[in-house]
Amino acid sequence: MTTVAPDRLARIKEIVAENIDVEAEDLSDTALFIDELGADSLKLIDILGAIEMEYSIVIDMDELPKMVNVEATYQVAAAAAGW
Amino acid sequence: MSTAQSPAAGDRRRVVLTGLGAITSIGTGLEEFTAGLRAGRSGAAPITRFDTTGFEQTYACEVKDFDAERWIRNVPLDHVGQAGQFAVAAARMAVEDAGLTEAELGDTRAVISIGTTDGESHDLDRLVAMDVEAGDPEVMDPVLAGRVNAGRLSTAVARELRMANVEATTVTTACAAGNYSIGYGLDTIRSGEADLAICGGADAVCRKAFVSFYRLGALTSEDRVRPFDVNRKGILTGEGAGMLVLESLDSALARGARIYAEVLGYGLSCDASHPTAPNREGIARGIELALDDAGVKKDEVDFISAHGTGTKANDKTESGAIVDVYGSAPPRTVALKSMLGHSMGAASALGAIACALSIEHGFIPPTINHVETDPECPVDCVPNESVEADVRIVQNNSSAFAGNNAILILGKYGERV
Amino acid sequence: MSTAVSEAVRETAELAADQLVITGWTAVSPFGVDRAAFTAGLRAREATAAPADGVAGALPSPEACLVPGFDIRELLGKKGTAKLDRLSALVMVASDQLLRDADGERAVETDDRTGVVVGISMGSLETITDGMRQSLTNARPFYVDAGKIPVGTLNHAAGAAAIRHDLKGPNTTLGGGRVSGLLALNYARKLIGQGRATKYLCGSAEEFSAAHAWLEHVSVEQGETTPLLGEGCGLLLVEPAGSAQGEPVAAVLAVESRIDIDDDPAAAVTACVEQALDRAGVRADDVWAACPSAAPGRAGRAESAAVASLVPAAALDRVPSMALLGDTSAAAASLQIAAVLAVAEGDAESAGRVALVTAVDRDGAVACAVLRLLGATDQGGAA
C-alpha cells in the first residue's frame, strides 16, 4: 500500500463520482461500487479509462476486479503509476 | 398474450436458400470458405487496414484476397466503401450461385436486406483523420463523406444488380444484424409480398471497432480467439460479407434451382436490461421463439452455430442460455469466430452460410484454438477438428449490444414435408 | 373517379382485424419538444431556423433547425444520462411521450412482444466521430471515453428505449436516411403480420451535430448549396385494428419502396406511388393530403414534382412544407407522417380521407406510405 496523496485521491473520487452518477461529497472511500452504488463492469471500465487518461498511465484490465471502491481504485492507480 | 396474427405453420409459404456468397478471412467464394471451415483455418493476421501504433494488440481477421473488380460491374467502385464493396461482391456471388441472371432479376419484386455493425466507419475514420491532420473539416474527401450512411450498403446492391423494384433495407442492429436481415427476407416471402430476398451482412475491419473493443477489454491480447476455452481472453475483430438468396419454395422448384437448405424460422428477443452485457434469459427466449417459429423440437437440432465471441461474458452467458433451453446435454455448439474473428454485421450471415454448407456437405465445422473447455461453458464445441455428420437441422445464434438477440433455424430441404 | 367511390373511401367504420392502424404518435421536432408544440408550430407554419449557438464545435453554416429546449438531463433525469447521445435521447423522450400520460404513468400496455423499430442514417455521428478524434489526438490511441462506446453503436437508441420501458419484443434499427421512417413502418407492418409482435413503437430520428453538418457540407452535390439541417424524432404506435387498445387515428393501407437505379428520381417516385396506391386500392385522385419530404437537392425537387403531377392540387397544400423543419434526414419520414396526422386532427373533413407520404434519400431509395385518416380530432385523439 502506498501512502495516499490527498489531491490525487480527491481527483479519483471526482472521476468515480462523474462516472457512477453520485456527488463526490456523498461518496465515501469505502462504499462498494457494484454492491452499494449500483455500478456495473462497464462503469468500472469507464472509471479505469478516465484515470488512465488523467494520469497518462496504463492499467491492466485484469486489475478491474480489484477496483471495488475509491480506496482500492486509488491503490490500483498508484501501482500502475508508480506513485 | 394477445392474438397472434401469424399464419399457422402448415399454411405458410416455405422459403429456401438457393444461392450463397461468402467473402471471409479464411477464403473468398464458397469453395474456399467450405475448405476453410472443414480444415479449421484461422483468419487472424497482423492488421493492414489501419496503423496499430500504440496498441498491444495488432491482429485482426481481415479478408486477404479480395478483388472487387472481379465481382462489381455496374456501380463505380468508389460508390461504396470497403464494407459496401464486400456486400455488393457477395451479393453478386450469391445471385450467380443461384443461377439468376440480371435479366431474370430485372423488375422482380424483392427485398434486399443487409446487416451491419459499423457500415462504412472505416471511411469515417479516414475523414476524421483528414480533419485532425489539417485542423479543418473543409478538407474532408467529398466522395467518402457522401457514402458514409449505412443505407447505401443495400441500395448499392440494388444498383449493382439493376433491381429497381426492391425494398432495400440496411439493418443496423449491430452484431446480430445478419440474422435480422435473413429473418426479414423470410417474413417478406412468407407474407407473399415477394418471392425473392437477397439478405445477409457486411462489415469491414476498422479502427473504430478495434478501439471500442480494445477499450472495453473485450479484445484478446493473443493472436487467436478461443471460444468456450477456460483461458479465452476475448475477440479479434474481423470482416467480410455473407449474402444469401432466399426464395419461395414454389419459385425455386419452378426454375429447378439447387436448394441448399430450408429457412425454417427465426426468433428475435430484446433483453431490455443492459446496453452491453449479454443476458441469459434474453438469449434463451430468442432460442425458444426461433424453435417455435420453425416448428422444430429440441431433440431435432443437430448443432448450434453459437454467437461464441470468445469473451468471458458472452460464452458463459450463451452456454448458460443453451443449457437453459436444451438441458444438460445440448446439441454440439461451435464458434465460427474461432476461425473468422468477429466479423460483426457479417458474422451471423456467414454463420448461416456455414450452416447451409454443413447441411449440403455433411460436416460440422470446429471451434479451433481450443485447449481446455471452461466448466462454465458446458458444451461440446467440436474442438479443433471438423466432424463428418448428417446435418439436418441447425441453429444459428447471434446477439448484439443493446440487448438484441436473433436466432435462425435452417433445415435440410425435403426432410420436413 | 365517381362520387360514389369517393364516398366509399370515407367509410371508416369497418376495419379488418389485421388492418395495421396508428393508435398513437408524437414528434420531437424543431417546432418543440412535444406533440402539442409540433401541432401548433406546424399549423402556424412557423420557420424554425435559428443560430445554432449551443452546438459544440464550429459549423459550416451558422443556422440549423434544432429542437428548442432539448435538455437531456431535464427531460430524462440525471441518472444514467451523463454519457447519453442526443440521438438516443430524442428517441427516449419520444418513447416517454408515446407510452406515458401527462403524470408520467404508463398509459399504453406493453408486453414481451412489444417491438421497437427505429430508422436512422448513421447513428450518433457526434459520438462516433468524437471517439475517433480522441483516439487520434490523445496520448494513447485507446484513450477514448469508454462510456460513450455503447452509445456510439448504431442500435443504441432502439435498445435504450427498450430498456427504459421494458420492451422485450423485436428490437430493430434500420439505416436508410430519409426513407428510414417508412422502412421502419413497413418493417413493423410485416413483423406484426407474421405474429412476431403485437404492437410496435415505430419511427425514425436524427440528431444535429457539427460532425453531421460538416459531412453534409463537404459532400453537397455540385451546384447545390449546403442544406439547412434539422433534427428530431417522429414516433408512432402501430398495432392491428383487431387488438388495438388505443383509438386508431389512421389505417396504414400500403407502404412501398424502390430504388432509383437510373438516376431518375422522379420516375422512381412515380412508380413507387403508383404501386402503393394500387396496393391500397385507391386512386391518385382520392389523395386528400400529400406530404413529400422536401429534401434538399435534385432528388427532393424531383420528388415534389412527381407527387404534384399525380395528386390533386388541393392535396399538396393541406400539409405545410417540411422545409420549415430543415432537412431532418432520418427523422424526416416519421415527422411527415406526424404532420399529416396533426393536420388531420384539426380538420373534421379529414375523416375517411387518403393521405400520401413520400420520401427520397440521396443513396437512391424512394418510399411512400398511403394512409386512411380515421377522423380522430384534437378532442378525441389518442396518446
From TrEMBL, chain A:
The entry's keywords: Phosphopantetheine, Phosphoprotein
PROSITE patterns to which the protein is assigned, alphabetical: CARRIER, PHOSPHOPANTETHEINE
Gene3D superfamilies: ACP-like
Record flagged with keyword Transcription regulation: no
Domain Carrier residues, every copy: 6-83
Pfam families the UniProt entry points to: PP-binding
Domain of life the protein comes from: Bacteria
Name under which the protein is recorded: Acyl carrier protein
Organism annotation: Streptomyces alfalfae
TrEMBL record, chain B:
GO CC, alphabetical: cytosol
Transmembrane segments: none
Protein name according to UniProt: 3-oxoacyl-ACP synthase
Entry keyword annotation includes Cell inner membrane: no
Sections of the chain in a coiled coil: none
GO BP terms, alphabetized: fatty acid biosynthetic process
Presence of the UniProt keyword Transferase in the record: yes
InterPro entries registered for this protein in UniProt: Beta-ketoacyl_synthase, Ketoacyl_synth_C, Ketoacyl_synth_N, PKS_Beta-ketoAc_synthase_dom, Thiolase-like
Superkingdom of source: Bacteria
SUPFAM superfamilies on file: Thiolase-like
Annotated family: Belongs to the thiolase-like superfamily. Beta-ketoacyl-ACP synthases family.
Residue intervals of the Ketosynthase family 3 (KS3) domain: 12-412
Automatic annotation (TrEMBL), chain C:
Domain Beta-ketoacyl synthase-like N-terminal: 20-239
Gene3D superfamilies, A to Z: 3.40.47.10
Keyword Cytoplasm annotated: no
Keywords associated with the record: Transferase
InterPro entries attached to this UniProt entry: Beta-ketoacyl_synthase, Ketoacyl_synth_N, Thiolase-like
GO MF annotation, one: 3-oxoacyl-[acyl-carrier-protein] synthase activity
GO terms of biological process kind: fatty acid biosynthetic process
This protein's name: 3-oxoacyl-ACP synthase
The species this protein was found in: Streptomyces alfalfae
